[in-house]
Write a structure and sequence with these properties.
The complex is a heterodimer of chains A (775) and B (193). With 775 residues, chain A is mainly α. Chain A contains 33 helices and no strands. Classes of the chains: A mainly alpha (775), B alpha+beta (193). Chain A: Pfam families: MIF4G_like (PF09088), MIF4G_like_2 (PF09090).
């Protein structure tokens, strides 16, 4: 393999040798700029190619800078902050061939916008994002040549950013990944920004060594001629970049970020420590690639496996070094395992609150592919991550605990369900309310849902067998009315046979009337009794598969709607019947509830009330530790908030069809749902729930009571955050609407005088061949 | 305006199966000319198909085990979004699952995400295949093979436990061979005695 400076030189020469090809010139510029935002790990190498080409054909840099400046301007105007960062990173790598202060003036102007925003509002997130971009661009400038040259400029800028970076953001408490028992302030995870500020400060004190960054534009001593050619090549002015007075948040919601690592509690450092700027620079570069290349997980995984190629040599230990052997590595050699760094980066997204950029399943798929590409290297790293997460599950935010469970079961399903379960055997002794035991129970259940009980039983050691009840082997649950001891058994069987032969409504009505009059005689709720018989019979008739039950519901949906509308208790009974009938396969129950919500047979409030009051009440709070109960409530909330967002987007679109009334109604429904959830959970969290008091053994301090309270608190945090995030979304949406309105008015008054933004660069398709050269 | 091509291949495009180029192969004396034409034609074809699928919300899912249930499919595919409808592929004759299905989402984006994140991963311990589809129509749920299942299961030479063992046509052929052998052996036996 050729060293990278030679590789870059070969590409640069290939290009300058064919300089007369005008098409090639244009394509080269477009491709370089495209790669800078599509495969950003390659940015320093792209810059090296350009710097070398500058020695022979300096005109190319002018062509490139002109387009680059236009793109930065455009992306700032659109609020596409990641692209802004990536173009600036590329520009920073070119600092060596820029006139005057190069990229610094742009950073300074950006900073002044950040200050305005932060002064205007303490909840501003754009200013924070801008400061993050500035801090992440500085190191790439400093790595270009002699750090002394820019040290003062950097120091001046960092002195200014400190005020913003050091201040904890108002929203930070919400997105904290840990939810510790007896938490005190000092344990709060540091924000990415304040971390970065400190790291850069210490790097400055260290003469800007930045030893992890690649410098492919540096040639070995024997190539002194080539080196001086680069250094003495023509310098170019960076065209002015116009930054609008008001900047926008852009299409992606911005939140403060914190740095998390699943390898932070080890005796040997297998990832860069948070004291080193390498932790932030490598993480940032990897995250950009991971989130950008969502459309090809194989390439993402490949770049992660190859990550040591994109940073300076000796940044990492050799690939696939077993963790136990890291101890034998003599300083100053690095003990950073490239696999750990890669896996850590993906987990940081899986555990990003409120939500990562892509769907969670994308990050699952990246880990799966990485594991397939380099099983010997990646699998042990994943194993250590799993152990860390399992150990820390009780202290994690509940939403993240469930993300872990979901990933874990999905991942195992791709690798033959093999895991060293024996090492957790001792935890089987814990009661089911213990978070680790709850994790084991939930994870096994999720495995079964992706597979089947018999298969999963085969993968588990003996002590775990009791966790999979024999009933789990049945594909269809039993019909409770087959047993004569159950009230209304006869009517239940009759109802089922009527439904099976699709009997006319009148016959069904007759049975319902019979049940109701009997119920009245027995002094029980007639509506609830008849609802239970009817719903359970529908479920039984459709028990062969999901399509059967959906067809059965479709056939009876009018009657189900009538039952649902009859009373709160009857509506709740529908949920109870579904969850009861399918208790052995809760995945099916959850699916059915979802469809009943779509049909508006159930309301979100009913589902939430059933879970947090009825079910949790009957079990004295134990149900709060069950995965399926959480999933039910979480999915319901996501459905409702998703609906509001949909309406908002429609209302904000230029041809806004949705009236404000619909939006107001949907928002009101969402808010009252959150209020109901928070009310129900608050009483569990404080131990003031009637059932808690009822089951209490005395002073309210038993282990069990404390466990239930803790579950209540963890639940509460999740849904308070959800609610706060939706409120923040509504505020942003309202702002955006105002902005658009103002813009439209401006347009109307100054018709014709409005500057039209430049067309996007690289419209023509770039040749795949030229991409391959750089790749 | 053409959409800018990425420097990395996308997994959320229709597969080669959908883009099967026309079977007419023109002959050219000049190889370069032929390649250029072929490429242009293939590209044009691809553009047309992509145009037709640009709002697709349905996926064809293949290489399922005959034993994989709807519930398992829901469990996995819901990770990309709520499922609107699931239609299991059935053996035309027995009406039992025959190893494929159609998954319909509410949005095009969910279908694309499914191509990117679920196609090529495992369900029920088999690598499954996903492909964007124009949408389910009645009748398409049945296998089109001679014996009721999918065509690929007629002549499959490997033994696939999840898909009924050997290809059905081949299994039938082997069975006949064995029968002949048995008769032959009986005959031999008789002669030896």
């Amino acid at each position: 393999m050729r060293p990278w400076h030679e590789e870059c030189q070969a590409i640069a020469n290939l290009f300058t040798d064919n300089w007369d090809d005008e098409l090639l010139r244009g394509n080269f510029v477009d491709l370089v700029l495209q790669l800078a935002v599509e495969q950003p790990l390659k940015t320093p190498f792209l810059a090296a190619v350009v710097l070398i080409a500058n020695g022979d054909k300096p005109e190319i840099v002018d062509l490139l800078l002109l387009k680059l400046a236009g793109l930065v301007e455009k992306k700032i105007a659109e609020g596409e902050w990641r692209d802004v960062k990536l173009y600036l990173k590329f520009a920073a790598c070119l600092q060596g061939c820029l006139n005057g202060d190069g990229v610094f003036p742009v950073l300074e102007e950006l900073f002044s916008r950040a200050v305005d925003l932060q002064t205007a509002s303490s909840e501003d997130t754009i200013g924070t994002e801008i400061v993050k971009i500035i801090l992440l661009t500085i190191p790439y400038i400093m790595a270009t040549g002699s750090p002394e040259e820019w040290a003062q400029k950097a120091a001046d800028l960092m002195e200014k950013t400190e005020i913003i970076a050091g201040e904890p953001h108002a929203l930070q408490a919400l997105i904290e990944p840990y939810h510790r028992e007896n938490a005190d302030e000092s344990q709060q995870t540091q924000s990415l920004m304040s971390l970065l500020q400190t790291q850069l400060q210490s790097e400055a004190n260290n003469g800007w060594a930045l030893s992890c960054l690649p410098r492919p534009w540096e040639f070995p001593l024997k190539d002194v001629e080539q080196q001086s050619k680069i250094n003495n090549a023509e310098k170019h002015a960076l065209p002015s970049i116009n930054i609008p007075q008001t900047v926008v948040a852009g299409p992606k919601p911005l939140f403060p970020e914190v740095y998390i690592s699943v390898y932070s509690q080890q005796d040997v450092e297998s990832v860069p420590p948070v004291t080193s700027v390498a932790s932030s620079l490598i993480r940032d570069a990897l995250l950009d690639s991971i989130n950008i290349i969502h459309y090809n997980r194989n390439v993402t995984a490949r770049q992660l496996i190859d990550l040591d190629c994109y940073f300076s040599p000796r940044t990492f230990a050799p690939r696939a070094t077993p963790f136990d052997r890291l101890r034998d590595i003599e300083p100053p050699k690095s003990t950073w395992k490239p696999e750990d760094v890669a896996v850590d980066a993906v987990f940081s997204q899986l555990f990003l609150l409120p939500n990562p950029e892509q769907k969670l399943v994308y990050y699952h798929s990246v880990l799966t592919e990485a594991c397939k590409l380099a099983p010997a290297a990646i699998a042990p790293s994943l194993g250590r991550a799993i152990r860390f997460l399992y150990r820390n599950a009780p202290q994690m935010d509940l939403e993240l605990s469930y993300r872990f469970m979901d990933w874990f079961s999905h991942h195992l399903s791709n690798f033959g369900f093999t895991w060293k379960w024996t090492e957790w055997v001792d935890d089987l002794e814990l009661n089911n309310l213990h978070p680790r035991k709850a994790f084991i129970i939930g994870a096994i259940d999720k495995e079964i849902r992706l597979s089947f009980a018999r298969r999963i039983r085969d993968t588990l050691p003996e002590p775990y067998q009791v966790l999979i009840a024999p009933e789990k082997d049945q594909d269809s649950p039993p019909f409770k009315f087959a047993n004569n001891d159950v009230p209304f058994a006869e009517e239940g069987r009759e109802m089922a046979s009527l439904l099976k032969r699709k009997a006319p409504d009148a016959e069904i009505d007759a049975v319902i009337e019979k049940i109701q009059s009997q119920a009245i005689d027995r002094e029980i709720d007639a509506l609830v009794a008849s609802t239970d018989v009817f719903v359970t019979s529908v479920l039984f008739v459709g028990s062969k598969s999901l399509s059967h039950v959906l067809a059965a519901i479709e056939r009876s949906k009018d009657r189900l709607a009538d039952f649902g509308a009859a009373s709160d208790a009857a509506r709740t009974q529908i949920v109870d019947a579904v969850m009861g009938f399918w208790s052995i396969h809760p995945g099916v129950a959850i699916c059915i509830i979802e469809k009943l919500l779509n049909y508006s047979i159930l309301t979100p409030l009913t589902v939430v009330n059933w879970a947090l009051t009825v079910r949790a009440g009957k079990t004295y709070g134990s149900a709060l530790a069950l995965e399926e109960v959480y999933e039910l409530v979480f999915n319901t909330v996501v459905k409702v908030t998703g609906r509001v967002r949909q309406v908002v987007v429609k209302a904000n679109s230029p041809d806004g069809m949705t009236d404000d009334e619909t939006l107001a109604q949907e928002t009101k429904n969402m808010r009252s749902l959150f209020v109901a959830i928070e009310d129900a959970l608050a009483s569990w969290a404080t131990g003031s729930k009637d059932e808690t008091i009822e089951a209490s053994t005395g002073d309210g301090n038993s282990v069990r009571e404390k466990q239930v309270q803790r579950w209540g608190q963890r639940w509460l945090r999740v849904f308070k955050r959800r609610s706060a995030i939706e409120e923040a979304f509504l505020v942003e949406a309202a702002k955006e609407k105002e902005r658009r309105k103002a813009l439209a008015e401006e347009l109307a008054s100054a018709s014709g005088d409005v500057a039209i933004p430049d067309a996007p660069a690289g419209e023509e398709a770039n040749g795949g061949d030229s991409a391959a050269v750089v790749a | 305006m053409r959409v800018q091509r990425s420097t990395i291949e996308r997994l959320d495009r229709p597969s080669a199966y959908f883009n099967r180029p026309g079977n007419k192969k023109r002959r050219y004396d000049n190889k370069d000319q032929r390649d250029a034409d072929d490429e242009q034609r293939a590209e044009q074809k691809q553009d047309e198909e992509e145009e037709r699928l640009k709002n697709a919300t349905t996926l064809y899912v293949g290489n399922l085990s005959f034993y994989t249930t709807e519930e398992q499919i829901y469990e996995l595919f819901s990770k990309c979004g709520e499922i609107k409808r699931l239609v299991m592929g059935l053996d035309r004759i027995n009406k039992t699952p025959c190893g494929f299905c159609f998954v319909e989402y509410y949005t095009h984006q969910d279908a694309l995400d499914c191509m990117k994140y679920i196609g090529g991963t495992k369900l029920d311990e088999r690598i499954i295949r996903t492909d964007l589809d124009l949408g389910f129509e009645e009748g398409r749920q049945y296998g089109r093979g001679k014996s009721g299942g999918q065509v690929r299961d007629e002549y499959r030479e490997d033994y696939d436990e999840g898909r009924g063992g050997l290809g059905r046509a081949i299994a039938a052929e082997r069975e006949r061979e064995r029968e002949r052998e048995r008769q032959g052996r009986d005959h031999d036996d008789g002669r030896l005695r």
